[in-house]
Design a protein that fits this description.
three-stranded antiparallel beta sheet, globular, 3 strands, alpha+beta
């Protein structure tokens, strides 16, 4: 069960606080097909658990922003 202080979803703004990347890089990252996100209209939310799993799965790999538009 999740802790009440733990977020279930992140927003783009949350990712800006969590990752050492700029806004454009965050949007390119989120646009990747393999990046976990939910689009509701124009709003993008990132399931926290899936995001953490995605980070773990990509440790040691190089993620290029050129491949963001796959």
């Amino acid at each position: 069960m999740s802790d009440n202080n733990q977020l279930l979803f992140y927003t783009i703004t949350d990712l800006l606080d969590l990752l050492p990347l700029g806004r454009n890089s965050i949007y390119r990252l989120v646009s990747r097909d393999d990046f976990p996100k939910i689009r509701i209209g124009k709003k993008i939310i990132i399931p926290a658990k899936r995001f953490e799993e995605w980070l773990e799965a990509n440790i040691g790999t190089e993620i290029t922003m050129d491949s963001a538009m796959k």
